[in-house]
Amino acid sequence: MFAIIKDYLIVNFIQPITVFIVDWVEYPSDWIANASQQDKDAIGLVDVVYGNKKDERFYWVTQDEPVYNASSNVVEINYTNTPKDLATVKTTMVAQTNQSAYTMLLPSDWMVVKAMETGGTVPANWTTWRQTIRTEAADYCIAINACSSIEQLEQLPALQWARSPNDPAPVVAEQTSEA
Predict the structure, then answer these.
(1) Contact assessment for residue 96 and residue 141, using Cβ atoms and an 8 Å cutoff
(2) 13 in helix, strand or coil?
(3) Which end of the chain is more exposed for a tag (fewer CB within 10 A), N or C?
(4) pLDDT category, 174, cuts 50, 70, 90?
(5) Angstrom distance (rounded) from CA 15 to CA 4
(6) DSSP assignment of 96-163
């Protein structure tokens, strides 16, 4: 992103590859890519740089007011990152882990029901896989609950679920919900 600066004030933000207007002059979408630094300076075009924005699963993130830094000739956008309540985040992560395990096991539940109804058996590779998923979920929940800070939760590696007998590729759990 870019900003237009006039008299040390931010007057406009410009997305790359867009048509924009400065001082009643319309610039085409490729102007920024093709303009010289002198042309950019003439209209007050500067880069926008972003500060550290933490993971919103673990932090309440608010964007600070953009500030023009004249010494580096950029607009800086920083963030305030406030840790979320540890217990709430842990509860959410445990629930998400258990929901993921449930969702993975659900499509093969019919095998268990059929085996119970007919007196048959579930194929060994499926029984092993289903138990592995339950164990992985339980172990990950233990790891979550063992964390005593938001920083420790952030450092937990993503859970690598075991491959189902029908799935040759590993699945990486995604935890995108906010606490």
Answers:
(1) no
(2) strand
(3) N
(4) low
(5) 11
(6) HHHHHHHHHHGGGHHHHHHHHHHT----HHHHHHHHHHHHHHHHHHHHHHH--SHHHHHHSPPPEEPP
User: What pTM did the predictor assign?
Assistant: 0.74
- pLDDT tens-digit series, residues 90-131: 999 999 999 999 999 999 999 999 999 999 999 999 999 999
List b or e across 40-79, with b for residues whose CB sees 16 or more CB atoms inside 10 angstroms: beebbbbebeeeeebeebbbeeeeeeeebeeeeebbbbee
pLDDT at 11 over 90: yes
- Residues 67-84 pLDDT 10s: 999 999 999 999 999 999
Please say whether the beta carbons of 144 and 154 come within 8 A: no
25: left (phi over 0), alpha (psi -120 to 50) or beta: beta
Please tell me the distance from the alpha carbon of residue 151 to that of residue 168, in angstroms, as a whole number. Answer: 33
Q: Which pLDDT band, with edges at 50, 70 and 90, does 168 fall under?
A: low
Q: How far is CA 74 from CA 22, 78, 107, 162, in A?
A: 18, 12, 53, 47
Rounded to an integer, what distance in angstroms lies between the CA atom of residue 98 and that of residue 141? 8
